[in-house]
Amino acid sequence: MDQDYERRLLRQINHQNVPEGLSSKSGYAACSPVTVKSGDRFIPTRAGSNWSINFHYANENCWSPNQNQRAKDASTDTGKDAVAYAALLRNELLGAGIETVPDPHTDDRRNALLTQDTHSLFRYTIHTKRVPFDNEISPYSLSPLSNKSHKLLRSPRKPARKISKIPFKVLDAPELQDDFYLNLVDWSAGNLLSVGLGACVYLWSACTSQVTRLCDLSVDGDSVTSVCWNERGSLVAVGTHKGFVQIWDAAGGRKLTSLEGHSARVGALAWNGEQLSSGSRDRVILQRDVRTPPPVERRLQGHRQEVCGLKWSPDHQHLASGGNDNKLLVWNSSSLLPVQQYSDHLAAVKAIAWSPHQHGLLASGGGTADRCLRFWNTLTGQALQSTDTGSQVCNLAWSKHANELVSTHGYSQNQILVWKYPSLTQVAKLTGHSYRVLYLAVSPDGEAIVTGAGDETLRFWNVFSKTRCTKESKSVLNLFTRIR
Fold first, then answer.
1. The CATH number of the domain where 408 resides is what?
2. Per the structure, how many domains does the chain have?
3. I need a surface site. Which of 65, 132, 213, 294 has the fewest CB within 10 A?
4. Quick one: three-class SS letters along 270-315?
């Protein structure tokens, strides 16, 4: 570190009061409560509007991008200085011997400061000067700082993680339903966002901001209840209120097939290669191969109420399903009965996400009466960790590049939380939606997310890191790491 930075810290020691705590927590903007009816099935009525005209940017962010960046940089620098200041005080007053500045965003930064050796506190010691070596200060130096503090000031500091509290884009989404059991937003590998609004499905290009209407179900007296892209981003599946599952070619804008089989609305969809799984209010999960003219069908029956969450594991071997019966079930690709069943949640399980970093690690979140995030080792059937989030968990998604995940919430805080795993510490808390944040999708590059809510807005946030961590994460869940 340069001499100006050292002088600034010395000036703080000489002229400022010692702060009460050794670390500072960044303040979070409080989300004003919204008076709503409790219960996951509350669906308010809204006047319809035509989304095909265009997206309208909501003028909620009155700051320019340069002003936002300056504000973020100022808050980040303040956090860095506070950590260095606390470490420097412990060196000079308590003889802690800290030689490197802890990262203000790491989980163990506070513990590292509090667990330093304080054996020299209130003890008389005689300090003898020694001949300086390469990295020690000169005995003729006029600096009042100790050798450890000089090492602290010279130590390199990692650039702090920056997560903006303001969405970088806000779009209007009229007729976006406020229904906990639907899944109306998905982001394709081709950078197209599909959104179900009323009876229509719209595609929004993240590259050109162009909007196209893919389908309109109003001619059949039907409405959209779920959308899901296949892995290549060429086909989009549309679940309807009447129980149909339609397969659409996004590039050609034409319907390829319409699948029957459900007797009630289809609120959850999940692709596994060329196979499509659909979950319905009729409590049945249908798995079908869309390549065959009459699709080969597998009926999975295990839930006693509506199926509202479906996710395939990254290795394509297991399907996780959540239902309104508070159950989380795990199915394999051959059995018609669940191979695992978890009953710890106390409310509907819609939020489900498989970890891309640790084999067999599954995360789930419960509804209003539960509010908990829970993690499971599906290789052994063991419950790992859980934490109470304080509000209804609506969605979960893992970062593609780091061992982090994001959760969106409903009653009563309507917030977005970024978590670090396995410590389950909050990296960021984002607010802005005035209704439950029911919809979540991750961009194909893994950096941004889009959230949707009953306030009829879509908000885009930069929450995840850009590059994959070079340090290999060793998981006790991965059996292959122990093979020699």
1. 2.130.10.10
2. 1
3. 294
4. EEECCEEEEEECCCEEEEEECCCCCCCEEEEECCCCCEEEEEECCC
